[in-house]
Amino acid sequence: MKDEEKYTRFALVREMMETPGILRQFKPANTDKVVAQIKEVGKLFLTGEGSSRLFPAKNIMAQAMRDGVDIEISTEGSLQAMEYDLSSFVVVAASNSGQTKEIIWLVKKIKDAGHDKIFGLTANKGTKLESLANQTFVLSCGKEDAVAATKSVAEQALFCQMLIAKIQGKLLDVAALGDAYENALTQTIDESVVKDVADAGRIYFAGRNDGVAEELTLKTNEITRKSSDFLEGTYLLHGVEEVMNAGDAVILIDPYRSELELIKKLISDGVGAKVIAIATEDTIFPTIRVKDIGALTTYAYLAAGWNILVEVGIALGIDLDKPQRARKIGNVFTEQ
After folding, report:
1. For residue 332, what pLDDT band results from cuts at 50, 70 and 90?
2. Domain for residue 151, yes or no?
3. Buried b (16+ CB within 10 A) or exposed e, 214-231
4. Could you give the CA distance from residue 60 to residue 229 in angstroms, rounded to a whole number?
């Protein structure tokens, strides 16, 4: 994405472009209590709805497993979480508005049951969530005008990752993260890639269950108004080709290199789908390359996906800020 008026006239793009600076300057305060409680009980439950949960929660779950962190980390949407016994978990509930109905219901339920390890994560001060949680952290990113959440997603994810990094005694290189994020957002996407995705009947994202591909699947609906699907792991090679159509687009996020030739045979050659990769190195498919920054590279994959989707939305002549049905706050809590 560039600074041209065709991009900057959209709040969505302006907010995306604020994200690298937010990441570079990330310095959360007053987290000692939540970190200490997570270490004490050894269990962390992350909840939220939509973009407030998918990448922030699943990203640190995957990274913690890779690092062998001795903390049990789980996630679920708030209504399903109401069916769980969370009494032994530290609960971090994320809601940008601080008034998402499902979140408030869950927090009220477990607080009424005597739960005293509830932490809120929001972008606004003085919210219902803040009044209920034992401690609430307010993001620095500020209010978003676009319906699709962007800068808040990245900051929420970094906040969650920072909690685990503190338990590990590690420091996150936020300067390198900001640079890699900006590079992924601003690099030029080949016109043929934009056309293939814009012409697709359906856009599939295939990748690990770390929130990146799943979050991009949601963003596809909000930004391009196209149908999309998330294919976890190697699901792409286990039957979905039966319902794919020639001309569909498949975007691989950091694909397993051992499976590329089979994907070409079954999906590219067999179905006739257009396959694109986002990776740290070239692949046999058209590839959007991002900088390898270790455990933070997932953020660059996300930014590269945003880049593609914005280019596609603009190519299709879509007003990126005004979906016809989607709302900024899906379900607003109101006092009965």
Report:
1. low
2. yes
3. bbbbbbbbbbbbbebbbb
4. 22
89 domain-assigned: yes
pLDDT digits (tens, 9 = 90+) for 232-291: 999 999 989 999 999 999 999 999 999 999 999 999 999 999 999 999 999 999 999 999
**The overall pTM is greater than 0.85:** yes
* C-alpha to C-alpha distance for 251 and 249, rounded to whole angstroms: 6
- Ranking 97-101, 183-187, 204-208 by mean pLDDT, the lowest is 97-101
The average pLDDT across 304-327 equals 87
Q: Are residues 21 and 156 in the same domain?
A: yes
How many domains would you assign to the chain? 2
More confident residue, 323 or 13: 13
Domain range enclosing 104 = 5-175
CATH number at residue 147: 3.40.50.10490
DSSP string, 199-239: H-SEEEEEE-SSSHHHHHHHHHHHHH--EEEEEETTGGGTT
- Contact between 171 and 165 under an 8 Å Cβ cutoff? The reply is yes
**Predicted pLDDT of residue 108:** 96
Residue from 297, 225, 283 nearest 252 by CA = 283
Burial status of residue 28 (CB atoms within 10 A of its CB: 0-12, 13-18, 19 or more): middle
CA distance 49 to 149: 12
If one counts every other C-beta atom within 10 angstroms of the C-beta of residue 90, the result is 26
The radius of gyration computed from the CA coordinates of the chain, to the nearest angstrom, equals 20
Domain for residue 273, yes or no?
Answer: yes
Antiparallel, parallel or unpaired: β 202-207 and 118-122 = unpaired
End-to-end CA distance of the chain: 45
* DSSP E strand stretches across the chain: 43-47, 72-76, 90-94, 118-122, 135-138, 202-207, 227-232, 249-253, 274-279, 287-289
The helix (H) or strand (E) run that includes residue 35 is helix 32-41
